[in-house]
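To start, an entry.
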Amino acid sequence: MHDDPAHATTASAPAGVGNIGVGFDLLGHVFDGPGDVAVVRRIDEPFVRIDTITGDAPGVEKIPLEAAANTAGRALMALREGLGLAHGFAIELDKGIPLGSGMGGSAASCVAALVAANALLETPLPLQALYPFALDGESVASNSRQGDNVAPMLMGGAVLATADRIIPLRVPGWLHCVVVHPGQVLETRRARAVLAEPYPLREITAHSACLAQFLLGLERADEGLLRAGLHDLLVEPRRAPLVPGFAQVKAAALDHDALGASLSGAGPAVFAWFASRAGAEAAAPAMRAAFQSAGFPARSWVSPVAAPGAGLIESAT
C-alpha cells in the first residue's frame, strides 16, 4: 500500500431530519447535534477501502468494512467511477450518530466521506455535484435512492431533494426544532416495509394540500401556513406503532405550542418545529419525559432549522 499522509482530509456531517413529516423522501433538514466524521486519504491503488470504523454508538462494530456494503465506501466508489479517477481512497469513520436512530447516520457517513474526498481532487466539485454519488452511497442502507438526508447534509438548512436536484428552501431565522432520540433502534428497511400497501386517493390529495401549505409557509415565513401544513397523513400513521411512546412525545410537543411534530426519518427519533428558540427549549424536557414515561431514556437537541451542513475540519497540503 502506498498511502500518502500528506494527502488526507477530515470532514464532518451533521445529523438530519428526513421527510420533515409531510415530505416523505423529498424534504429534509439538518440540526446542531451529533455528527459523523470521516478521514479520507488518497492512495495509489485504484480502489476504495475502509480502514477503521470507531464511535461509541451501540452496534458500531456491526457496520461493514467492505467498501461496497458501506454507505461511505460505496459513495467514494461511485465518485471514482463517475470521474474516472486513477487513484483510490482509504477511509476512517468515526460514528457520532446512533445507529437506526432516524437521524441520518448512514447518510452522514457517506456525505462526510464525499466532502473529504472531494477536497483531495485536483479540481474539487461544487457540493451539489456530489449529490448523485451521495445517492449511490445512501442506497446501500435503504435499498432505494432518496435524497432527503444526504441533500440537506451537503447544503445545510432545509432542502427539497428530487431525483436529480437539490433545491434549498428559505428558512426563517426564528424557526427552531427539537429532536428527541430514545433508547430504541429501528432499521430503515423495516420502517419502509410497512408502507407497501397502496394509499386511497383521498388521503394522497389531503396530504398534497398539507405539503403545498408547508412549502408556501417556508417561502413566506408564515407561521400559520407552517402549522396548517406540518401534518404527515400518509407515513406517520403506519410507522407510529413501531415507536413505543411516539404518541405521548408528539402530544407533549403540541401541548407546548409546536407548529407540528412527527417522526424524524424512519424513527424512532421524533422532531418538532417551533416559532422560537425559547419555545423549543421549553418543550424539550417534556418531550424527553414522555419517552422516559414509556420506559425509554432519551436525549434531546434544540437547534435552528437553518443549521450548517457538512464541512472540512482540517486539510493537509
Q: What stands out?
A: The mean pLDDT is 93. The radius of gyration is 19 Å.
